[in-house]
Amino acid sequence: EVQLVESGGGLVQPGGSLRLSCTASGFTIATDWMHWVRQAPGKGLEWVANIKPDGSQKYYVDSVKGRFTISRDNTKNSLYLQMSSLRVEDTAIYFCAKAIAAYTSAWGQGTLVTVSS
Amino acid sequence: QSVLTQPPSVSAAPGQKVTISCSGSSSNIGNNHVSWFQQLPGTAPKLLIFDNNKRPSGIPDRLSGSKSGTSATLGITGLQTGDEADYYCGSWDGSLSVYVFGTGTKVTVL
Questions:
Q1: What is the C-alpha to C-alpha distance for residues B38 and B98, in angstroms, rounded to an integer?
Q2: If you ran DSSP here, which 8-state letter would residue A109 be given?
Q3: What is the pLDDT of residues B81-91, one digit of tens each?
Q4: Contact residues, chain B, for A103 at CB < 8 Å
Q5: Which of B22, B15, B16 has its CA nearest to residue B102?
Q6: Are the beta carbons of B104 and A101 separated by less than 8 Å?
Q7: Which of B25, B23, B18 is nearest to B6 (CA)?
Q8: Among A3, A51, B85, B86, which residue's Cβ finds the most Cβ atoms within 10 Å?
Q9: pLDDT in tens, B90-99
């Protein structure tokens, strides 16, 4: 069964850091672009970042540039999102997804990040 | 702020048809493929349509996608109560180098 499982979410104070992980099972992520997408409470989807299969290219939405870093370890079949200088507006459910707009697309169930004092 | 515009809501009776529009620009829809996603309450998004009009395995042919210029449309025929969900379009934006989602449309079955 193709499965993506996110972890690492939680409550953090403004200015703090958090590292999200996404572990795949039932398939290898090594051949796919991987993405992080977030959804603030009651709001729509917002794409956050993506990374090429070999990790050589990364793209970010402007609001997280310089604060978030996407990375991957294909040997561990895992995707990561290092988040720093967190803001209240970063509060959201964070989903990882593979091949977001392709035949083999798959999404995780998400992990909640709450930034609050 | 999303660069793809969708109507906030659409509705129809069971068995009827709904269409959802997605309006963008030449930097996204005009020069890149469009995808459509369904998000049932409390669940992760699910890909319904990719490459403008292709369906992944398991997606019924009641759902269809089309693109013309800088706009795209999702059609759902034979509407069922299980189709009640939020629907989002999406496309790569070559000018911004980001993937953009639409504002989202809530489908209600009357």
A1: 20
A2: -
A3: 999 999 999 99
A4: 50, 54, 56-57
A5: B22
A6: no
A7: B23
A8: A51
A9: 999 999 999 9
